[in-house]
Amino acid sequence: MKKIETIIKPFKLDALKEALHELDVHGMTVSEVKGFGRQKGHTEIYRGAEYMVDFIPKVKVEIIVQAERVDEVIEAIIGSVRTGKIGDGKIFVLPVEKVCRIRTGETDKDAI
Fold first, then answer.
1. Which listed residue, of 16, 20, 37, 110, carries a Cα 20 to 30 Å from 65's Cα?
2. CA–CA distances in Å: residue 10 to residues 33, 59, 60, 109
3. Stated pTM of the model
């Protein structure tokens, strides 16, 4: 099993959710996060004063899938969120040793 973490622009969340639903990937965890990469923030003007916004709002989506599904899920993520502009995000794939559904006690593949 693998954990796919992706950091995306917030307005792309619905498109990602729909793309994953088409692949029968229904479980996900979504968090509002802030950060920056090459974008390095931007400046804004508030009441006539200019100030630096260092951290840009993003959405982090975490998905657990069987190892053989990783490539198709990554393709769906890229296809649904890519704008071609800086700040589109990143995808990380990590190993998952064990999954357990608390309610039923099911483990691993059955618990996804």
1. 37
2. 10, 5, 9, 30
3. 0.83
